[in-house]
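Fold this sequence, please.
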Amino acid sequence: MHAWPASEVPALPGKGRDLQIHDSATQGTITLVPGPVARIYVCGITPYDATHIGHAATYNAFDLVQRLWLDTKRQVHYVQNVTDVDDPLLERALRDGHDWTELAEREIALFREDMTALRMLPPQDYIGAVEAIPDIVPLVERLRDAGAAYELDGDTYFSVESDPHFGGVSHLDADAMRRLSAERGGDPDRPGKKNPLDPMLWQSARPGEPDWDGASLGRGRPGWHIECVAIALDHLGVGFDIQGGGSDLAFPHHEMGASHAQVLTGEFPMAKAYVHAGMVALHGEKMSKSKGNLVFVSALRRAGVDPAAIRLALLAHHYRADWEWTDDVLAEAVARLERWRAAVSRPDGLPADALVEEVREALANDLDAPAALAAVDRWVDAQNASDGDDESAPGLVSRTVDALLGVAL
């Protein structure tokens, strides 16, 4: 599966700073010092609906990580999956009378368009669950053969008790885990499971649903969590720098994935940092496909909203914060974009070397994009209030905003 085209990232003078980031597993801020190649895995979409602002906010956060690492003169190996077979996709296709593969392909294509418009840097490896099945099956067999998985009425489940570190990503108690498991694709009330929290690794074939050859597992399709584990281990190996996604993935998805990988490899942790973006609300409730309270990136673009303004609206909120999308949020972003573009359109201006370092410092401090925007605002206000004579300044500001924030002025 192919991703989307990459926008050029301008080179800046000097060198960026190492990232201090909040890690859900340690519940504190850690400093990441990757090797020459920084490694990041971000969980992708289940393609049964278009890209909404909540999706965009999550991918914007990890785009900032990529840009910060590139500014430190490292290479970045970024991997993202697409859950192109799963219950929500099949249910939506059945509801609307569509072929599930055509629905997935259409929504993936729209997602690519939205990511391109928002100048999100693409992953080097963009892998669908279906194409990963040949890698998934042997992992499930290994878990079963090691006694970490068991069969129940033809389905194969992972035993969470096989991982002594289980619970170390989300830090939830058993009651909260059980509740969230039921809400987020699990089946804690299924009779016969060794532990209500045990997640499915391989679902045996069901009438009317797609299935694949699972070798000794029989025909069926993979569970949600093992999909990402197989892709991450195949392309990044264990101990990569960041496992990322929305905060709603901390449990069960990232918790279960970590346990799968740690039992499979015997190494801990799966990732050096588990990084989670906050949720975006609309009309007082978290944007949700099930509730239908969504603002779509593609709809905003069709209405004539500049993608750079959409991106500034996202950047105005700290990535870990929960926040609400409103007309005022977008209006403020549009006005900020106009001010910034007017300031850098002048032939000369105030020196901007200090601004470059301010933006770098803000982003290195747990991706503090609002502080980075405030730094640019101060330069813009000063630029508009006085006459500067540095001919290189407007260009340097434009390159900084583009390289580090992904906003084209």
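The first strand starts at residue 19 and ends at 23. The first helix runs from residue 53 to 71.
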